[in-house]
Amino acid sequence: VQLVESGGGLVQAGGSLRLSCAASGFTFDDYAIGWFRQAPGKEREGVSCISSDDGSTYYADSVKGRFTISSDNAKNTVYLQMNSLNPEDTAVYYCSAKYGGIWEYWGQGTQVTVSS
User: Fold this and answer.
1) What is the per-residue pLDDT across 24-79, written as a single tens digit (0 to 9) for each?
2) Pairing, β 32-38 against β 67-72
3) Computed over its alpha carbons, how large is the radius of gyration of the chain?
4) 61 vs 30, 47, 56, CA distance in Å?
């Protein structure tokens, strides 16, 4: 089982990044995929997730209207489009796969740094 994040980097405030989470080794359609982030000295927080069955989405209040999650089931990949980034978005971003209410699989994370 693998979840591989990519697309992180350094961007100026107001800029955009698109993160990708490529999944393999499990039945992608059976899982919800979520994005989490953890900033230095802070607890990990849920950012967004997308349901595999009906495509419903969730966003944390802090990213609503700025981030968009989407899924390409043919590619077993979930994307997180992040717009209007600000320094408070700086964190390591992780994707995770949930089955039966448990976030079962995790990627290694990708660093997002937003400069002011």
Assistant:
1) 998 888 899 999 999 999 999 999 999 977 889 999 999 999 999 999 989 999 99
2) unpaired
3) 13
4) 26, 9, 16
Q: Which three-class secondary structure state does DSSP give residue 110?
A: strand
Nearest one of 29, 76, 19, 20 to 54, comparing CA atoms: 29
Asked if residue 82 lies in contact with residue 66, where contact means CB atoms within 8 angstroms, the answer is yes
Q: Which of 113, 104, 102, 95 is nearest to 44 (CA)?
A: 95
Q: What is the arithmetic mean of pLDDT over 11-32? A: 94
pLDDT for the residue 68: 98
Angle subtended at Cα 30 by Cα 28 and Cα 35, rounded to the nearest 5 degrees: 65
Does residue 61 contact residue 46 with C-beta atoms inside 8 Å? no
- Alpha-carbon dihedral 110, 68, 106, 23, rounded to 10 degrees: -100
Q: How far apart are CA 71 and CA 79, in angstroms?
A: 6
63-77: per-residue pLDDT in tens? Answer: 999 999 999 989 999
